[in-house]
Amino acid sequence: MKEVTSAQDLVDSLLNAGDQLVIVDFFSPGCGGCKALHPKICQLAEMNPHVQFLQVNYEEHKSMCYNLNVHVLTFFRFYRGAQGRLCSFSCTNATIKKFKDALAKHKPDRCSLAPTKGLDEKELLSLAANKDLFFNYTPNPVQPTPLPAAEEIPTSFELKESEEKTLVGAGR
């Protein structure tokens, strides 16, 4: 498992993962549930070498976790390629089946065949707005959709000759 060291590290890890399934484990070293669950998550990581496991220490990165709306531990997020976030949930040692089911559902052998998405735009903007994180993000400019030329736009008063005859015939 790779420990995330900053918001930039998290963003880069997700973008560089391509179509690989990435599981982000938000934990706290002082959390009893996190400590109990950790060996099982490590075992699942070893059994799934084609899945990238990332860890975010809540105590060291509270501000980042807050901006990502992580408020309960242990918390997991699954990401893949252009799809971005696949699912998010909290789980404990007693509910590890939830984690295993999500892992089975989002098997590593799928691919999305598009540029990697990573975090949602809203999450990136939230991280960038937090001055404690030293994370810079410039949103991609939205390209305006070109409007059709004026001669291509039909107007309601332009009727074809056949439509005019139909209207005249109906008004007898």
From TrEMBL:
Keyword Cell wall biogenesis/degradation: no
Residue ranges the record marks as coiled coil: none
SUPFAM superfamilies per UniProt: Thioredoxin-like
Keywords: Redox-active center
Residue intervals of the Thioredoxin domain: 1-108
Listed Pfam families: Thioredoxin (PF00085)
Protein family per UniProt: Belongs to the thioredoxin family.
Protein name per the record: Thioredoxin domain-containing protein
Biological source species: Hibiscus sabdariffa (roselle)
